[in-house]
Specification:
The chain is mainly α and about 170 residues long. About 70% of the residues lie in helices and about 5% in strands. The chain has six helices and two strands, in the order E-E-H-H-H-H-H-H. Helix 1 packs across helix 3, helix 1 runs antiparallel to helix 6 and helix 5 crosses helix 6. The chain is globular, with a radius of gyration of 17 Å.
Length: about 170
């Protein structure tokens, strides 16, 4: 679309007028998705005291079932691809929503934390039960809190990059 649309975005006390380019939107989606998704793998390793390959196989088990744990590097690669695909989808939803509702960019910390809660709920109570795993993990308070904190961080990272999409 030519000429490019101009949009005023307020970040903190500063209002910036910038182009809404497809390039900045895509870079926000991919950077937010890849970085948040990768850090989420690291958080899962810490929370579960497991190696990255095991975490990635656990992600792949959502599609492949228990056989993912016997597939070695191949199923770990499937898990990594699934993790990044889900992370990019999650980032896309937030970035597009922030273009529709600029308040999500202005109040990106609050919006990111709220989005992290939504992502946590959807992943644990919709995606996991519908996956080949077939159920949410056994409830433990400490694990619940650790997972929630990881998703709050995930939401913050996505929101941080989304706020830059139109600047």
């Amino acid at each position: 679309m030519w000429p490019p649309k101009m949009r005023a975005v307020t970040i903190g006390r500063r209002t910036v007028v910038g182009q809404m380019s497809a390039r900045s939107t895509l870079s926000s989606i991919f950077l937010g998705g890849f970085i948040a998704g990768t850090i989420d793998i690291g958080a899962a390793c810490l929370i579960n005291s497991a190696k990255p390959a095991v975490i990635l196989q656990a992600i792949a088990s959502g599609l492949l079932g228990k056989s993912a744990f016997g597939g070695g590097a191949r199923t770990a690669a499937v898990g990594l691809a699934l993790q990044w695909a889900m992370s990019i989808i999650i980032a896309t939803i937030f970035v597009l929503a922030s273009r529709w509702r600029p308040a999500l960019q202005r109040r990106w910390v609050e919006a990111g934390l709220a989005y992290g809660v939504v992502v946590f709920a959807v992943m644990n109570y919709v995606v996991l039960p519908l996956s080949a795993v077939g159920h949410s993990p056994r409830f433990r308070v400490a694990h619940f809190i650790e997972d929630l904190i990881a998703m709050l961080l995930f939401g913050l990272i996505v929101a941080f990059f989304a706020r830059r999409a139109n600047v």
